[in-house]
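Researcher: Here's my situation. A collaborator sent me these components and asked whether they could plausibly form a single complex. I don't have experimental data yet, so a predicted model of the whole assembly would be a useful starting point for our discussion.
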Amino acid sequence: MAFNSFEYALFLWAAFVLFWTLQRRKSLRHSMLLVASYWFYAQADWRFVALLALSSVVDYAAGLGVQRARDQGAPKRARGWLALSLVANLGLLGWFKYFGFFAAEFGALFGRLGFNVSGPALDIALPVGISFYTFQTLSYTLDIHAGRMRPIKSLLDFSLYVSFFPQLVAGPIVRARDFLPQLVVPPTLTSAQISSGLFQILRGLAKKLLIADLLGVHLVDGAFANAEAMGERGALGVLIATYGYALQLYGDFAGYSDIAIGSARLLGFELPKNFDAPFKSRSLEDFWSRWHISMSSWFMDYVYIQMGGSRGSWWKSSRNVLVAWGLVGLWHGAAWTFVLWGVYHGAWLVIVRLVRKLIPGGGFPDRLPFNLLGGLFTFHVVAFSMVLFRCPDMETFWTACRQLADWSKPLPTLPWQVWTLLAVGYGTHLWPGDLAGQLERRFVATPAFAQGVFLAASIVFFFLVTPPGTAPFIYFQF
Amino acid sequence: MKPWKLIGWRTLGALLTLVGIDRGLYHFGNHGKWVVQERHPHLGWHMLPNQNGWSRYYDVRERTNTLGYRGQGWPSTPADVRSAYADDAPPVAPVEGDARGDDILCVAVVGNSMTYGSSVAENEIWTARLEVLLREELALRGDPRRVHVLNFAVQGYVFDQMARTFDQRIAPFLPDILIVPTTTYDLAPMAAPAPTFDYPLRRWVVRTAISDFALRRVQGRWMPGPSAPSFDPEVPDIEGNRRRWAAADADQREVAWRLFALDRGASPAALAAVEPELRLAYFERASETAFERLWARAKGAERSALLTLLPPALFERVRQTLQHELTAQPFQPSNRWMWDRAASTLDGLRQRLEAHGGQLVLIALPTLSRLSRPDQPSTSAYWAPWARSDGPRAFEFDPAAQLRARMPELASFLRDPAIFDRGPRGELSIPRAAPEIETSLFFANDTGHYNARGHAALAEAVSARIVSAGLLVNER
C-alpha cells in the first residue's frame, strides 16, 4: 500500500480514529497499532510478515539477554547475545539481499579462473523494508550493549517499534532510544499537531506527485533508459537529465519521509527529520548531515565511530571513511554500481578533508563567494554520483561519462512544462530561509474546516495533473 | 478537545469539497455522466458493470447490468460467465430470473453502437423490441417458453471482439439463436485498447466526474506525453534503432502482439519470410513504402498475417486506412481478404454454436446511404452466399427493403445526387429541408445510428424473418 494511494488515505484515517478512540487504553491502543502495522506490511507481501516478527522476537530477547549479562558483570555473555542479534539481522539481510549477488559474482570469478562453479540459480524476493527494520533493531541491541539505554520489558511495545507502519517500509531509521520513550508517555492530541501532520503529508505528496513523478516520466526515464538513449544526449542533455534526476530522487524520498513523519505525528509520535534542504549544502559533510539523515547518522554512529572515526592518523581516518561509505553503498543494493557509488562518496570526503588539511586555517573562509562555489561543487559531486545510482548498467554510466565530454550537441528540446518543474522544484528548495516552515505556520493557523477544504482541493489538483496510476517510491527497492 | 472533534471539521471540510467539486463538474460540466469502459486483455475493452449514466447528448438514460451490458432482468448468469469475469472484475452476483432451462428461448445478440442503442432508451432498443415481438409470437402459438433476448453489444466493437465476446461471455448461456448484425465497419481489425492503469479503487475512481474531467480535459493536455525516441535515417545503425524502438514502446507493442496473436492466419513459414524485411524496413524509416510493397505482394491470409507484424503506431495507421477503404469501397477486390478473414472468424463461431444446437443469424444492417441508394451493394452480397454454403444452421438476411419502406420519401430525396453529401464518417447527412424528415430511421445529427423508429423497424423485420425461417420451432 503506497503512501500516495487512496487506500493509504483511508487506512490512515481509520487508524487515526481507532488510535485516538483508545487514547486511555494503552495495551489496546498499542495492540491495534501493531495489528494495523502488520496488516500494512502484509499488503506488500504477506509471506514476509513472519520475518518481521522473527526479527522483533530475536532482538527483544537479545536486548534482555545483553542487559542481564551486563547487570551480572558477564561481558562475554553480553557479547554472545549481541552476536546473536548481529548474526540474525545481518544474516537475514545477507540472505535476502546479497546472497544472489555474491553467488553470481563468485561464480563468475571462479569461472574466469577456469573452475566451473554452477550452483542453483536462486531468485530470492527481497522483503520490503528489510534494510530499514533490521538496522532499527540492530541499533537497539547495540545501544543496550554500549549502555546507552536499557531494554524494554514489553514485547508488544518492542514489536510496535520495529513495525510502526509510517516508517516501516523506507524509514526514517528510528533509534529505539528515540521511539520507545514515546510509547511510555500517554499520547496527547492537539489541533496544531493534526494541522502540522496534515501539512507534512501534503508537502510530501506535492514533492512526490508534482515534482518526482512528473520529472521521472517526462525527463529522467527516457534519458536513462539505456546506453543508446544516453548516447544521443550530449553534455548539456546529460546535465539536464542529471539535474532532473537529482530533484526527482529528492522529491521522491523526501516526499516519502514527509508523509511518514506526518502520518506518525497524526498518531502522536515524532519521527526524526530525514532531509533538511540538502541541495543548500556548502560541503559534502554538510550534505550528508542533510540527506537521508537517519541512515548517514546510523553509519556514522555504529560503523565509522566504532572503527575509530577520525581518531588516529589521517590514513586511518581515511580508511574508516572509505570502509563506512563502501558499506553505505552496499546497503543501498547488491550491485557494483552501488558499491562504486559509496566508495565515490567516501573518496570525495577523503579528498575534501585532505584539501582542508592543506589549507592554512583548516578550510575556506565563511564568505558568500566561497559558500556559493562550495555549494555548486557539492551539488555537482552529488548529482554526478546519482548518475551512477540511476543508470541501469555500467554501460549506460560510461556512455553518460563520455557524453559529458561532448559539448557539440545542442540542448535537447524539452517542453516548457519540464523547465517549469525544474525551476519550481529547485526554486522552492533553494529559497532563502524556511519557506516550508512559514507555510506550515500559516496552515496551522487556518481554521480546521478550511484546512479540510485545502486538503481536498490539493488532492484533486494532484490527481488532475499527475499521470493516472500510482508510481512506486524509488527507495522501496532498498 | 476530543480527538474526533479535531478531525471532524477537517474531514467534513475535505468531504464537502470533494463532493462539491465532483457534483459541480457533474452538473455544470456534464462530466462523469457517460458509461465508462475499461481495458480488457481479450476483448480490448468492456463496459463496467452496474452503471447508471447518460447517452452521448445526455438525453437518454444508459444503464449497464451486473455483467456490464445494457438490459436488465437477464436469466441467472451461468457460473462460467462469472468465472470469465474473475480476472478483471469482482465476482458477479446472479441476476434476477431463473436459470435457463428448456422453458426459455435464449437469443443472444452481439454488436456495437448500432445494437447497443446509443441515445436510444433501453426499452426501445431493437433487441428489447425483438424480445416483446417474439414473446407475443410464442404466445400466439401457445408455446409456453419464455423469451430472453440478451444484448451483448458494446460500443466500438468489430467482428473480432464480437467473436471473443461469444467465447468469453455468451457461450455459457447456451443461446438457441446468436444474432450477428454486420456492417462493413466491423470487418476491420480491432483497435488496440488505450492503455489504462491499475490502481487501488480504480473502478470507483473512474466513475467520478473528477476522473472524467481529468481524463478528457486535463491529463495529457497540460503536459505532453513522454517524447518518442528519435530514429535518425542518416545513421545506418539499424540494430541501435531496433533497440531504441524496443525500449521506448515495449508495453504498447506487447499489447498489440497479444491482441493479434490469436488472429494469425498465415503459416509460420510465411510469417518468417516477411518478418525481417518488414521490421528492417520499419527501422529504416521507409516503413510505409516497404509496407506498401509487401502489401501489394501479399494475398489473402498473408495480409492478415502482415497485420500481426506491425508495431502499434504503424498498425493503427494501417487499421484506420483499412477501415476507410472498407467504408468507401467495401467490395473492392483488394479488400476481399478482409471479408474472408471475417468469414473464417464466423466459421469458428458457427461451429462452437452448433455444438449445443444453436443457430447463427447474420443481419446486414442497412446504413442510411444503403437505404437511400438501393443500387449500392449490401454486405449481403458476400454473406448470403457464405451462409448458403454453410448449411442450414446459419443464415443471413438483409432488411433494407423493409426499412426503406418506412421512409420512402426521405430515401428517395436523399438519392438525388444534387444533395448527396457525405459526413466526416463517410455517411450521408440529412438536410433540414428534407421532406418527411420525421420518418427518418436515423438520428438527424448522427446518421450513423438508428433512432427509436429505426430500432422498432429493425426489430419487426428481424422478428418476421426469424418467424418465417422457422427458428421458433422448439427442437428440444
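Model: Some features of this prediction you could bring to your collaborator: The CA atoms of residues 25 and 47 of chain A lie 31 Å apart. The two ends of chain A are 16 Å apart (CA to CA).
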